[in-house]
Specification:
By secondary structure, this protein is α/β, with parallel strands linked by helices. 21% of the residues lie in helices and 26% in strands.
Length: 225
């Protein structure tokens, strides 16, 4: 499986059979100016919640690629108003797709849509595909709910927000990695705005103290999982 980072919380997971794009926010992120959003292909688009820094490019990419969008019912209602109909709405449950299974899991955050309407509950996802189990936390603070994932999965990777202020900071994310019993973390949701700018050295040290490995791919970089 391959992971490509597009900034903020947007990334692409390429399984053996499908391309999964998460929380597309590229054209509104000045740090991602080098990314040509029209070159990104997707079979599925997974939306953790309705905030604009997670769905900013979702409609345009969904229309261009005809990707199936996976999201909360309230987000689906908003997408329908934008002309998006290829949607699989979920809540906190599990569903088997052609590439593998997706479990939508709890996130402690808020959610509203660009028009100000209610966005339903925020969420994260656990992807089980190609013999890998990967947790994407979405936007969340540290919560004991994460400990349940260690009972359900043997996670190879956890994709966690580390920018602080709106979400976990590096120290909290290192604790979250311990809660879910995952040794390798990919950091997201940082540096896009002044209030979530991080000290990368401090972040790395926080994870080293917790005996965890923190990966911070560059925007546009692809790594093998």
């Amino acid at each position: 499986m391959k992971y490509t980072y597009y900034g903020q919380s947007c990334f692409l997971l390429e399984t053996s059979t499908a391309k999964l794009l998460f929380d597309p926010f590229i054209t509104g992120n000045s740090l991602a100016a080098s990314i040509n959003v029209n070159s990104i292909e997707a079979d599925y688009i997974l939306l953790s919640h309705g905030h604009s820094d997670h769905i900013g490019d979702a409609v345009a990419i969904a229309k261009r690629t005809n990707a199936k969008v996976i999201c909360m019912p309230e987000v689906n209602t908003w997408l329908e108003k934008q002309g998006i109909t290829n949607v699989h709405e979920m809540n906190y449950g599990k569903y088997k797709f052609d590439f593998g299974s997706v479990r939508m899991v709890w996130a402690t955050h808020s959610s509203s849509l660009p028009d100000g309407s209610y966005g339903g509950n925020p969420a994260g996802f656990v992807i089980d595909a190609d013999n890998l189990q990967i947790y994407y936390a979405g936007d969340t603070g540290l919560t004991l709910e994460m400990k349940l994932l260690a009972e359900l999965y043997q996670l190879e990777y956890a994709i966690l927000p580390i920018g602080g202020n709106y979400t976990m900071d590096p120290a909290d994310a290192a604790i979250a990695a311990d809660y879910v019993k995952c040794n390798t973390v990919i950091g997201v949701h940082y540096d896009s705005f002044p209030v979530i700018t991080i000290d990368k050295n401090f972040a790395q040290e926080s994870f080293k103290r917790a005996q965890k490995n923190l990966l911070l791919p560059r925007i546009g970089e692809t790594i093998d999982l």
